[in-house]
């Protein structure tokens, strides 16, 4: 589809989020820019053809198609849950118990109505300059999404699950999601975004998360992607952190046709810290990409990145980790590690660490390794009677464990461990 | 139990084993000695099923079955165990998980019920005590960051866990201190029955003082060039390999 097709498609949704001036600015950008493609440094290794060449239809929400989301959500959590199907909010399927009015949980449309001041203060403030036609489309015609506001000094106990379901049985569907999460001063919250498919059809989800951490707040943010093999998903996430904040982002990409995460973390206050971890497991012809930018803007910041991929079949993956240290971000401590395990000779795993350092008193490290299953180790395990498959599973588990162990919500960690066991062979 | 007939093997076109004949019966302990690079570890790896070598001639029978037809794991399940000269580090795989998987597979193969968690832990504890393996190694990944001696002890521990019919020890003594050598050798001796057999590869007579061999072979340049009793090991300790090399001068291509 051309960008004009995308405009027509997304403008047909009952968009009621963006202000006119934001929309106009976005449309102006779209007019003068092309859809991302291979000539673009940041999109060189992401083959978007299957995403762009597909024809999509606007999502018609079938509200009563499902009555229970138990099969789709991560169960066993004592959580709050916001449910979206093709981008539209499903209040009756959601579970919202506002904890003593210290937290607002709901749809972005509701949030805008109920808290216009907060909405206006934060919405669309994370992106100084528009990045791509897709982010512009999202801002111009944002349909709905989750709105979470954690008030000052409140430490939320219950994890919040944002369940994003794609449903495209009869025709290929495209939709947008826009989530806004705000942690006021000294607050704390755990969020898991879960992307799942309800049917086997083709869908494209253009989603955007804007997350703001005010001073001394702590965020644990998890991205879980297990969609059908026809799902194309562009996920643009921006975190803006004030002083003394701590964020942890854990990404698990298990299934989808194209899953691309663009995560930008701005450490805009002193002593802001972030840790971002990812495990990606593409197989067949899947393409899973993580583009990470961490911008150290103030002193005493700390960032850690740990990304591991197991690439099977004829799959493709990209890890691009860019760390930018501004000249006044002294005493920055940044570390980055990417490891890829290639299971066949037909896969491609791109690994691009980029450090740009303009301060002189900093500590930065990065590493990257790509290899195959260690044949000698495999022989060793087999020589003790362990079958080849089982031996490989042991080794793959061991490889992924370091990342999975970073997940701090026990029920969620358990959930991923079980899925992982069953994914291979 | 084990019958090797005229075994020839090569790697990357280079012949390493040049017609090995060896027969080991239940209840016997055989030692193989020989200079560096003569092919001892190659022979051990081929018995265990390493597939980087090409067998060009000969056969190996284990309890009447053609061993070369079996996968690596099936050889282990059938009762072959190789204690490696250089045990591999397996990052992230804990010894407990590793042994659990191995013991489960062995029991399944033998048609036995799987052990309960507490039975398994009891077995682990018992066998660890046998080789006096330190408890701190338990939670660690297989061989990762182990000292040379700890790796060797870990091999014998695994051997005890799996209770094989044919135990192949490839230089298990090298890297062990004097006390550890005694402990490991005692462990191996305790596992000895009239139904199982051992093949001990070593450079040193010292080990053979503890694990007394019935037969000693000298492997040189891919062939067994001498076979004798434990006195042969003593003679080698005194005289080195030169006289053997000279005697076999004509064998060198
Ligand atoms: N993977 C391999 N690739 C190439 N050559 C090999 C390989 N494995 C063994 N060889 C060669 O085969 C010969 C025999 O090696 P092997 O390890 O069996 O000797 P060894 O008798 O065990 O010696 P040592 O006493 O030093 O342990 C050596 O010349 C060695 O270099
Ligand atoms: Mg050797």
Overall description:
The complex is a heterodimer of chains A (425) and B (253). Chain A is α/β, with parallel strands linked by helices. Chain A has 2 domains: 3-269, no CATH class; 375-425, no CATH class. Helix content of chain A is 20%, strand content 39%. Chain A is built from 9 helices and 20 strands. Chain A has helices at residues 3-11, 20-32, 49-52, 108-114, 116-122, 133-140, 375-382, 388-404, 410-423, and strands at 57-58, 80-85, 88-89, 103-107, 146-150, 160-166, 173-183, 188-197, 203-213, 218-226, 231-241, 246-255, 258-267, 273-280, 287-296, 302-311, 316-325, 333-342, 348-357, 363-372. In chain A, the strands form 2 sheets. In chain A, strands 1, 4, 5, 7, 9, 11, 13, 15, 17 and 19 form a 10-stranded mixed sheet that branches. Chain A has a 10-stranded mixed sheet with strand order 3-2-6-8-10-12-14-16-18-20, with helices on one face. In chain A, α4 packs across α5. The longest helix of chain A has 17 residues, at 388-404. Chain A is globular. Chain A starts with a helix and ends with a helix. The mean pLDDT of chain A is 93. Helix content of chain B is 38%, strand content 25%. Chain B has 9 helices and 10 strands. In chain B, strands 6-7-8-3-9-10 form a 6-stranded mixed sheet, with helices on both faces. Chain B has a 4-stranded antiparallel sheet with strand order 2-1-4-5, with helices on one face. Chain B has a single domain (2-251), classed as Rossmann fold. Chain B is globular, with a radius of gyration of 18 Å. Chain B has 253 residues and is α/β, with parallel strands linked by helices. Chain B has helices spanning 40-48, 72-78, 95-109, 117-130, 148-162, 178-190, 205-210, 230-239, 242-247; strands at residues 2-11, 14-24, 29-33, 54-62, 65-66, 80-83, 166-170, 197-201, 215-220, 223-228. The longest helix of chain B is centred in the middle third of the chain and has 15 residues, at 95-109. The chains are: A alpha/beta (425), B alpha/beta (253). At the A-B interface, α7 and α8 of A face α2 and α3 of B. Bound molecules: adenosine-5'-triphosphate and magnesium ion.
